[in-house]
Design goal:
Blueprint: E1 10-13, E2 17-23, H1 35-45, E3 49-54, E4 58-64
Antiparallel strand pairs: 1-2, 2-4, 3-4
């Protein structure tokens, strides 16, 4: 697991969504950028939705589903 650096990670869950928010990684941080794409493809295969948003100081990803799309 790779994290953007020191700071807080916020997790939120409801009956139909899960979100993660953490600090934006330093651009000099190593990585290939494949993690989010792997998650995106997996989520879409399940019929769920994924959205991501980058702000000046944090990154948020939200996964949503409905009960009929649960395997």
């Amino acid at each position: 697991v790779q994290h953007g650096g020191a700071g807080e990670i916020t997790l939120r869950a409801t009956a139909s969504a899960f979100s993660i928010r953490n600090r934006v990684a330093d651009r000099a941080s190593p990585g290939f950028g494949l993690g989010l794409e792997i998650v995106r493809r997996s989520i879409e295969k399940l019929g769920w939705s994924i959205e991501s948003c980058t702000a000046a100081d944090h990154f948020t990803i939200e996964i949503t589903w409905n009960e009929s799309a649960c395997p």
